[in-house]
């Protein structure tokens, strides 16, 4: 379930910023082979729906990791920003967004 949140997160170097309007109250952890390679461990991400915007887009590279999804990261510092399902433009933001209860 998505709830209304205005949350922002930065990459490590500050060259990119992600802003979300909605997000799930729960984080997910994925241990699939691709996430383990990408994240260097379980991928921690939160469903943010599709109302997501970015600053510093020239510093964001999206890697198409499969036919159905891509993974975005800061091309200056390498911080992971999102996993996106292409078909419905659904974003899962990485754990640089803190949940409201933290
Ligand atoms: Zn960065
Ligand atoms: Zn995975």
End-to-end Cα distance, whole Å, is 18 Å
Cα radius of gyration in angstroms: 13 Å
The SSE string, one letter per element, is EEEHEEEEEE
Which cofactor or ligand species appear? zinc ion
CATH hierarchy class name: Mainly Beta
Q: Number of folding domains? A: 1
Principal-axis shape equals globular
- Total number of helices: 1
Helix content: under 10%
For the secondary structure, the number of strands is 9
Proportion of residues in β-strands: over 45%
- Helix and strand composition category: mainly beta
Q: pLDDT average, as an integer?
A: 90
Description:
By secondary structure, the protein is mainly beta. It is about 5% helix and about 55% strand. It has one domain (about 1-95): Metal Binding Protein, Guanine Nucleotide Exchange Factor, Chain A, CATH 2.170.150.70. It has one helix at about 35-40, and strands spanning about 1-10, 15-25, 25-30, 45-50, 50-55, 60-65, 70-75, 80-85, 90-95. It has a six-stranded antiparallel β-sheet with strand order 3-4-9-8-7-6. The protein has a three-stranded antiparallel β-sheet with strand order 1-2-5, with no helix packed on it. The mean pLDDT is about 90. One zinc ion binds near residues 30, 32, 34 and 43. The site of one zinc ion has 5 residues, from helix 1.
